[in-house]
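User: We ran a pulldown and think these components assemble together. Before we commit to crystallization trials, I'd like a predicted model of the whole complex to look at. Sequences follow.
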Amino acid sequence: MSSFAWSNDIVRKLLIANRGEIACRIIRSAQALGISTVAIYSEADRDSLHAQMADEAIAVGPAQPTLSYLNMQRILEAALESGADAVHPGYGFLSENAAFAEAVIQHGLIWVGPAPETIRQMGDKQTARGTAAKADVPVVRGSVRFKIGELAGVEAAAEKVGFPLLIKAAAGGGGIGMRQADGPDGLAALVASVQAAAEKSFGNGDVYLERYLPKARHVEIQVFGLGDGRAVHLFDRDCSLQRRFQKVIEEAPAPNLASRVRDRMCEAALSLCRETNYAGAGTVEFIVDAESFEFFFLEMNTRIQVEHPITEMITGVDLVAMQLKLAAGGTGVTIPHTLETEGCAIECRLYAENPAKSFFPSPGRLTIFRLPEPLPGLRVDTGYREGDMVTPFYDPLVAKIIAHGKTRAAAVQTAISALENLTVEGIKTNRSFLLACLRDESFVAADLHTRFLDMHKTRLLAAAEEIERSQT
Amino acid sequence: MAKIDVSSEMTGSIWKILVQVGQDVEEGDTLILIEAMKMEIPVAASDSGKVCEILVAEGDMVADGDVVVRLEQ
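Assistant: Here's a predicted model for the assembly, 545 residues in total across the polymer chains.
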């Protein structure tokens, strides 16, 4: 072993409490650091790539997430049985579950993430708004919370917030349990339905109302904190292209964003990290008015983010390795005063879904799944191989096509080439829709906003259909 | 009386059954919600009629094309 190699005797074995591409991606960084890995898998994932890549793999239960990847007791047992020193939660599942983080720590294991108090503080979206305001981070106008079944005063609160507004689950995330209301008609019923959905998804039916900016961009800042008030930002990502409030295409840095706005957003994100003594990787999400460039805090995600690779591409930093080094005591975590970025990066999320049919999911077997040939600046993160099943139990993400170039146009061109050379059969995917987006004139002009996909849907779907036709 | 089969267009699990046997429904009414890939997918009545049979229970797995509800006109 060369004297420059990093080594540690604190995290020798890591359990990854996740599946799919993010589990594979975490395993790769752990292996590069000489940390042995333990995967967990559900019955549906018995033969999956992440279970095969890890040094050990432990079955944790049936296919349904609540019985496997959300089964805290069983995952803890697996961690203890395997002799793991640390648990990396990935994103989704238990990654923002403070009770799970606490249980991991109570069992003498290291939690690869921020302190449970921080997760709790940021996990309740409304408490997070309060914390942000305390750190002098601008927050968007919102209401008090309405507990499940509690609808008194909703109309008056809505009047104060102003229409259009969003009804949001206090415990929510990932776009689940979020609805838009354009006027007072049917508001109470809409609030009640979000309360019911939130209760089901998060075990907490509390909702609140929030002002909705008609033309807004979703821009987020990647941060990394040392847990003692010191933190660094790793610049911004634009994630405005969303359907059902879920991201489809992300890019770094955000195009057409004045550097003075970017600087203020990065400073605001750091201020929040200092306020919370943030530890590890996190993302501070903002909405930015596409005309005035006013920005408001939306929420903080206390975990690694799906779209973290585009930040890695422009900064050269391995965020997962940073997380693991910090978890192992912090040696080797270098936080430069000024990080530089190089070029632009874009991520396209290949989903198992049918754009022509309201983007409905399309589970099934990947009878053919051929990734594009390697290209300079291209990275593909996936948890699937040809012949694998994309089951209906988990999210529809099949692969992330990540492209880096000297300019935005160059990165987009690489992404286009990669998508053109990607073959998927057996399930429907949004491949052609992604290509249609990348070639769309408004996208090329970087006229990005959160309603982009909705507003240009007809044009994009027609273009996607044209692409499909030309290939058969 | 004509019977109409309403089938799921989606592989997933039955999240909620919104109708009862004997209930009258209109074309387009949501009968059942299916959960697949973290999404709720409605199964809508393909025609108007009376629900005469519900072939699934909440929590069941269904495949694309499985009949979930029978209507009679």
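The first strand of chain A starts at residue 13 and ends at 16. That may be worth checking against your pulldown data before setting up trials.

User: Thanks, that helps.
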